[in-house]
Design a protein that fits this description.
It is a single chain. The longest helix has 6 residues. This protein has 637 residues and is mostly beta strands. The protein has two helices and 51 strands. The strands form 13 sheets. Strands 1-51-50-49 form a four-stranded antiparallel sheet, with no helix packed on it. Strand 20 and strand 21 form a beta hairpin. It is globular and about 75 Å long.
Length: 637
């Protein structure tokens, strides 16, 4: 890749591994833009047309500078660690601003220099605006802080939280008016619109507490064609904001379509160069490493190829397929990958955004649980790809393309999935994606069609579903989590183990481990009919479902902490009847009869997720969740 500057990418192939371990490489060596877009048409000091792209890959942010004429590419790491999902803002013709790794950054398109302007308290920025005086403002996710930078004076200011709450705040969008006021929409738990006057430090919250409603991702604030700011939130209606005052209106003015506003929010006008030429670069094009350029006056685009380096993207799930190969999914971007043990080849194909937190096999089909839709996707390994073999073929198998009857917030963050032994049903459980408390179960008949939804009040109203296992008689054993969805607040503090009757779908028993954990991370039923589990206290327990009592409990500290990701499946039955468990530092084996456990291997790097046992090898994810590894269990004979 011409001009590539990224060296020593995270997740690069291991030089040495202990005997028995093998590194199969990254599942998907690709990258993506940030949500909302972060690709801009700019010119450098020599007048060259450059496409600037913020690339997210391998848990890191990179900046690509692609020559629109030749495709020659430079790739720069910002010099601070972090894969911030923040958008970037092009505030002038040759300066881009970003938030990565706790810093507010300036990127000079002409010199490729990255400057650290100031620290941020919080995660990153999902919204920017530029005031009439040219000052750039950014709202910081979680802390709700407002920060600003004045390019003319070089002054960076942290204005503190724009609004005080006891939950994580998402300030977006942000709009400045001609009077010097900054207006911010607040999400996620309860909607609010806040005005801030930088010159005086005055803050005004406009929506009365009694009228505030849950708004999900954001309320609406926009600059109208009349030069005024308009804001809206459920239960409050439309208001015009002028000089810090809010006045109710029946209808807002249309949102302004200036280059500045559209560049700030990453929409299509940012793709036009000063000479009138333009480019198109979608996330799928980024994966394929190509873009289209319409030169000024041209009626047809020309394709421009480019290249970049990626250590891979996070692997979320894996399962053994019916054809002897291992299948899995990455995110974000969401790719389905396939590993062939016979050849050592890994192939990957794009599916879209988000990630499949869990995969299971039912018969000859594979089923994936998608975040944040709460949907179940079906894949046929024998007919996985479309005709062009560039995209995965799938179908959504339950009512409503966005999960339970169109509502993703009951299982929008899937934690557990199970293929029932009846050969017909797939079960998915989890937590809401955002704000709400209490998760449910979806039980889908993949043979005859139809979905049964068990609501939180049918299970444990204020807890989600973290782990699922099937008992010998077909009943389900469920492990709960007390965690709330993003920006939600849960009052529960003791996770439960409970039994669900497979015929009636009724909870027939509830048990609490002692000491009570915050969540039960994983469950598996061994050949002896007992339930083996891990909880958040780094405890290993054994439960007798027929007696309704815990028969073993101990803290396990020899193998490192618990691991597993969003769907923490880290336990699997081996062909020898033993239970194999992934910990952060080591792989362990549990003997069901005696409950004794021992270490079988350490890869020398943190283990992140798994787990599949197939043809004598145990597959797992390590190297910052980017690469597929395996261990040879035949060594234990």
């Amino acid at each position: 890749m011409a001009g590539a500057l990224c060296l020593g990418l995270a997740g690069s192939r291991s030089e040495t591994l202990p005997e028995g371990f093998e590194d199969h490489g990254p599942a998907a060596p690709v990258g993506r833009q940030t949500p909302g877009g972060s690709a801009f048409a700019v010119e450098d000091a020599g007048g060259n047309r450059i496409v600037f792209v913020k690339l997210l890959a391998g848990g890191q942010a990179y900046y690509l500078f692609i020559d629109a004429e030749t495709g020659e590419t430079e790739q720069i790491h910002p010099g601070v660690e972090g894969g911030s999902g923040a958008r970037v803002v092009l505030a002038s013709g040759d300066k881009v601003y970003d938030t990565v790794g706790g810093w507010f950054l300036e990127i000079d398109v002409s010199t490729r220099e990255v400057r650290r302007l100031g620290r941020i308290a919080g995660h990153d920025s999902r919204a920017y605006t530029v005031g009439p005086d040219g000052v750039i403002y950014a709202g910081i996710v979680r802390s709700g802080a407002l920060v600003s930078y004045n390019p003319a004076t070089g002054k960076y200011t942290d204005h503190g939280p724009i609004n005080e709450e006891d939950w994580s705040q998402y300030p977006r969008p942000i709009v400045a008016d001609e009077d010097g006021w900054i207006y911010v929409g607040i999400a996620q738990k309860l909607g609010q619109v806040v005005g801030y006057h930088p010159a005086t430090g005055e803050r005004r919250a406009y929506i009365p507490e009694a009228d505030r409603q849950r708004v999900g991702l954001s309320g609406e604030v926009h600059l109208g064609e009349d030069g005024k700011v308009y804001a809206h939130a459920p239960g409050w209606g439309w208001h015009r904001l002028v000089g810090g005052e809010a006045t109710p209106v029946d209808e807002p003015a249309e949102a302004i379509e200036s280059r500045e506003r559209y560049t700030i929010h990453g929409t299509s006008d940012a793709t036009r160069f000063p000479d009138g030429s333009r480019f198109r670069l979608s996330n799928r094009d980024l994966v394929l490493r190509r873009m289209e350029v319409w030169d000024a006056g041209a009626e047809e685009p020309r394709e421009v190829g480019f290249d970049y380096e990626s250590p891979g993207v996070r692997i979320y799930s894996m399962v053994a397929g019916p054809d002897g190969r291992i299948y899995g999914a990455t995110g974000n971007p969401l790719h389905v990958w396939r590993f062939d043990p016979a050849t050592g080849e890994i192939s990957d194909w794009p599916l879209g955004g988000g990630h499949l937190n869990e995969l299971v096999r039912q018969g000859s089909k594979l089923y994936g649980a998608k975040y944040s839709q709460g949907s179940i996707y079906e894949f046929d390994p024998s007919n996985l790809l479309n005709e062009a073999e560039t995209r995965v073929r799938f179908r959504s198998v339950q009512e409503g393309s966005y999960g339970y009857q169109g509502n993703p917030d009951m299982v929008g963050r899937p934690y557990a999935m199970l293929a029932h032994s009846d050969g017909r049903h797939v079960v998915m459980g989890g937590n809401p994606a955002r704000v709400e408390v209490g998760g449910g179960l979806l039980i889908v008949d993949v043979e005859r069609g139809g979905t049964t939804a068990l609501l939180p009040e049918d299970l444990v109203p204020d807890q989600g579903v973290m782990a699922l296992a099937e008992l010998p008689d077909g009943d389900l054993i469920v492990g709960s989590t007390t965690a709330a969805a993003t920006a939600g607040v849960s009052e529960a503090d003791e996770a439960l183990l409970y039994r669900l009757d497979w015929e009636t779908y009724e909870v027939t028993g509830r048990w609490k481990p002692d000491p009570a954990p915050r969540e039960i991370r994983d469950l598996i039923v061994a050949g002896d009919g007992l339930v083996y589990g891990l909880d958040s206290g780094n405890r290993f327990f054994v439960f007798d479902p027929e007696a309704g009592e815990f028969v073993h409990d101990e803290e396990v500290a020899d193998y490192g902490g618990l691991t597993g990701g969003q769907a923490p499946r880290t336990m699997a039955l081996g062909p020898d009847g033993g239970i194999y468990v992934l910990f952060r530092d080591a792989i362990a084996r549990v003997e069901p009869d005696t409950f004794l456990h021992r270490e079988i291997g350490r890869p020398g790097m943190p283990i992140d997720a798994g787990i599949v046992i197939h043809e004598g090898r145990l597959y797992f994810v390590a190297a910052e969740s980017l690469r597929l590894f395996s261990y040879d269990l035949n060594r234990l004979r």
